[in-house]
Amino acid sequence: MDLAQLNQDYGLAGQVQVIAGEGGWPYIEVTNEQATALISLYGGQVLSFKPRNATHDLLFVSENAYYQPGKAIKGGTPICWPWFGPDPKGLGRPNHGFARNRLWSIHETQALPSGATQVMLGFRDSEDTRALWPYAFTLELEITVGNTLELALVSRNLSDRPFEITQALHTYFTVGDITQTTVLGLDGTTYIDKVDAGTVKPQTGPIAIASEVDRIYQGVPPELVIDDPALQRQIRITSSGNQTAVVWNPWIDVAAQSGDLTDDAYQHFVCVETTNAADDVVTVPAQGEFRLAVTYAITT
C-alpha cells in the first residue's frame, strides 16, 4: 500500500496519519484531545488506546508478537471471524477464522463533533477467502477513539443464501498484576470450562485468576468490569449483539510454551472477549447484516 496515497485519501490534519508499522504493514496513528490510538491494517486490529488522563494503555500487546503474513498479532483487539475457536466443520481450517490474518482496507476517517475520531476499516470476500468459506460478504469495523474506545463489527451477507457465524472481539487488556485482578458482572451465570473438557459450571462471585482460565460464559449481561487494583483502575466493558463472553488467561505453562508470549506475560493481561460463541450462533440472512459492538471505558 502507498502510504502517501493513503494519507492523501484518509489523513486528517492533527488527528489521523498512516505510517509504516511492524512487519511493513500500514498503521493508523490517531491523536486527538481525548486520546491516542494505534491501529494495524493487518488484522483490522487496534494495538494501543490511551485516554489523555490515563497513565497506562488500555491494551496489552506481547513483546514477542509475530508480525508475519499468516500469523495473528498477539495482543490488542484481534477479530475472530467467521468462526470462533476450532474449525466448526473439522476441515483443518485455521482456528478463529481468517479475519485476524488478512490485510484490511481503510473505508473512511472522520473527526466527530464530540472531539472523537472515527476510523472505518473493512475487507470483503476474495478467491482466497471463498476457498475457506464459500460466501460473499463484507466485514466492516467501526473504531471510535475518544474518551472511550468503541468498536462495532458489522457482518454483511452479499450472498443469495443465509450464513452462520460465530465471532469474537478477542481483546487483551493490560493489568498490573493478574493475581490481584478480578472480573465482575458474571456472578450467577454459567460457563463452559474449556480447561476442564467443556464441563458446564456455575459462576459464584467475581472471577479471580490463579491458574489457566479459558471459559465461555453464557447469558451474559451487557456490562462487565475488570477490577485492577494494581493499576488503580477499572475497565468497563459495555456490549451489544452478544449472549456470550470469554475470559482467558494462559497462566504459566501455556505462556512458556507460546512462542509469541514472554514467560511472564500472563501476569500482565487478561482477555475479556465480546463474543458470539458456543451456542450463541448468529444467522445472517441473504443480503442482511449483523452488528456486534462494544465500548471500553477506563475509570479510577
Walk me through the structure.
7% of the residues lie in helices and 43% in strands. With 300 residues, the chain is mostly beta strands. It has a single domain, classed as Beta-galactosidase, Chain A, domain 5 (Distorted Sandwich), CATH 2.70.98. The longest helix has 8 residues.
Structural class: mainly beta
Number of strands: 23
CATH class: Mainly Beta
Number of domains: 1
Q: Profile the largest sheet.
A: 9 strands, antiparallel
Q: How many individual helices?
A: 3
Low-confidence parts, pLDDT < 50 over ≥5 residues?
none
Within the largest sheet, what's the order of strands? 6-7-8-9-23-19-18-13-16
* Rg calculated over all Cα atoms: 18 Å
Strand content: 35-45%
Q: What is the CATH architecture assignment? A: Distorted Sandwich
Topology as a string of helices (H) and strands (E): HEEEEEEEHEEEEEEEEEEEEEHEEE
Helix content: under 10%
Inertia-based shape: globular
Question: Termini, distance in Å?
Answer: 40 Å
